[in-house]
Amino acid sequence: MNTAVRPTFRALNTYTKLMRAAESVTGRVSRFMAAANLTISQFGVLEALHHKGPLCQRDIGAKILKSTGNITLVIDNLEKHGFVRRERNTDDRRYFTVHLTQTGAELISRVFADVEAAIVAEMSLLSEKDQELLGELCKKLGARRE
Amino acid sequence: MNTAVRPTFRALNTYTKLMRAAESVTGRVSRFMAAANLTISQFGVLEALHHKGPLCQRDIGAKILKSTGNITLVIDNLEKHGFVRRERNTDDRRYFTVHLTQTGAELISRVFADVEAAIVAEMSLLSEKDQELLGELCKKLGARRE
DNA sequence: ATCATATAGTTTAATATTAAACTATATGAT
DNA sequence: ATCATATAGTTTAATATTAAACTATATGAT
């Protein structure tokens, strides 16, 4: 009886801890983004451009896993602040290519370094071996398809 | 040199996988909430009331880790749909006690069962031992204070 | 009673987030 | 050229989310 109940309890327990960990870490890391007046999604867009170079909105959305409507809004606001600019793609006029401005490039370069350091600090709570282990376990969960 | 770089790479890698796992699992689990026309936060409120009984808004907010302003909105909408009702606390008029209605209690009872089953299915990607392990690792990350 | 301080919950302003409907653009078949 | 289909990005509607300012209530000191 108790054995029959336990798998559910274990799963719920693990799930709750996973959710709490993700939110907790995100909360602390995102403070460095907020210090630069960037939201999590704004940072995500800038980071994608920083690492991958100019991208169309569809690809940005795919990279940071957000809907088309949301991408439009986030990029609108980034454009409003002068961090990115849109250029109509000449080969296919349905596309915009989003570029970092000089201002945006300098900002993300600096903020990314802060965020990176914060992530390293967060993960330092675990040994290197445990970090690898956590990564592997999460990889299994994150890769599920339907 | 490569050894000096690796700790950062590892931490970023683990962080990314943790975030992806959390979002991925949440995305699939929340579909059962959405099937009942409940948002994640609405479900969270109803679940808290379901398990803990009537609570004041402050305590609900603490349980699901949301701001006071947000709690007001989420509960407003739940009240609008007839799932909860607020009652002014007679001992201290600053407080509302939030109660599940009959409709709300029946709904959360059903939806919670679906969500629970979904979580078990998600976690079943890992062995029982790995579920325990993941839980322990996440617990360490989630417990950090500043 | 008055004042200082604290707290529950609301309001405000800015931004985020989704699904669905929509507009503009592209491609292929006829 | 016309029509069918697909796709990038926008708009719409509903809801979420936060911090900060605010209102109402409570408590303790004077």
General description of the model:
- Two copies of one chain form a homodimer.
- With 146 residues, chain A is mainly alpha-helical.
- Chain A has one domain (2-142): Arc Repressor Mutant, subunit A.
- Chain A has six helices and three strands, in the order ααβααββαα.
- The first copy, chain A, has helices at 2-35, 40-52, 57-64, 68-80, 102-123, 128-142, and strands at residues 55-56, 84-88, 96-100.
- Chain A has a three-stranded antiparallel β-sheet with strand order 1-3-2.
- In chain A, strand 2 and strand 3 form a beta hairpin.
- Chain A is globular and about 60 Å long.
- The mean pLDDT of chain A is 92.
- The A-B interface holds A 7-8, 10-15, 17-26, 28-29, 65, 116, 119-120, 122-126, 128, 130-135, 137-144, 146 and B 7-8, 10-15, 17-26, 28-29, 65, 116, 119-120, 122-126, 128, 130-135, 137-144, 146.
- Chain B binds a DNA duplex (30 and 30 nucleotides) through residues 34, 39-42, 56-58, 66-74, 77, 89, 92-96.
Across the major sheet of chain A, the strand order is 1-3-2
The average pLDDT of chain A is: 92
Helix content of chain A: over 70%
- Report the C-alpha radius of gyration of chain A, rounded: 19 Å
CATH superfamily label of chain A: Winged helix-like DNA-binding domain superfamily/Winged helix DNA-binding domain
| CATH class category of chain A | Mainly Alpha
Structural class of chain A: mainly alpha
Q: Identify the overall geometry of chain A.
A: globular
Biggest sheet architecture of chain A:
3 strands, antiparallel
* CATH A-level architecture of chain A: Orthogonal Bundle
N-to-C CA distance of chain A: 31 Å
